[in-house]
Specification:
The chain is an alpha+beta fold. It has helices at residues 12-22, 36-41, 60-70, 81-99, 101-112, 122-140, 153-167, 175-185, 188-196, and strands at residues 2-6, 26-30, 49-52, 55-58. The protein binds glutathione (GSH).
């Protein structure tokens, strides 16, 4: 059985969502950020962490990609061939290094950094996020999901980030991005994953 290691409210939500989509059995293991238990599994002391038997994997995008690849029969992975993999990588990098970055930066200055290191990054984060919403709007175009008409691991990442944005009152000023976020966040596996992590 998989072990999904993380703290409540962390990116472990996307790992658990992915496992729910795949219908794979798992155990949610609550571990605090930068605790000795987290450092024992991840040199960064960060979560989420996936334990698959003797294999330990960190970083949410890598974990979701690994699970999609391992359970390729469930249809949540990349399109076929080298270009399919490159397309998925492109989306995953966009999601984490661009779409998520302003959200995470603001969260860090609110809750994570030592209090004397915190500054007001709110306006800059809002400016950057608005730009990323426009980019996502253009990337999606008329598509239902990142890869077209098929829900994939990328939508788990982006949907989880959209939920962060909504919780953090970051406006999503695009009807199609809002409709996309509604579409992915209404999935029953998302609801189950939130309950499993104690978010509901
Ligand atoms: N790239 C990593 C980022 C992991 C990460 O920053 N996790 C947060 C919780 S969601 C954390 O453990 N932060 C502790 C810290 O920054 O001190 C991922 O996507 O999993």
């Amino acid at each position: 059985m998989y072990k999904a290691v993380g703290s409540r409210g962390s990116r472990v939500s996307r790992v658990v969502w992915m496992l729910e989509e795949l219908g794979e059995p798992y155990e949610f293991v609550p571990v605090k950020l930068r605790s000795p238990e987290a450092y024992a599994l991840n040199p960064s002391g960060k979560v989420p962490i996936l334990i698959d038997g003797g294999f330990t994997l960190t970083d949410s995008a890598a974990i979701c990609t690994y699970l999609a690849d391992k359970h390729a029969d469930k249809g949540m992975g990349a399109n076929t061939g080298l270009t399919g993999r490159a397309e998925m990588d492109s989306w995953m990098h966009f999601a984490q290094s661009e779409f998520e970055a302003p959200l995470w930066n603001k969260l860090r200055h609110r809750f994570i950094l030592p209090s004397d290191m915190r500054v007001d990054v709110g306006p800059a984060a809002a400016y950057d996020f608005a730009s990323e919403v426009k980019a996502l709007d253009r990337r999606l175009g008329q598509k239902q999901y990142a890869l077209g008409d098929r829900f994939s691991a990328i939508d788990v990442l982006l949907g989880d980030m959209g939920a962060w944005a909504r919780a953090g009152k970051f406006p999503i000023t695009s009807d199609s991005v809002n409709a996309y976020m509604d579409r992915v966040l209404e999935r029953p596996a998302r609801t189950r994953s939130q309950a499993a992590c104690g978010f509901q």
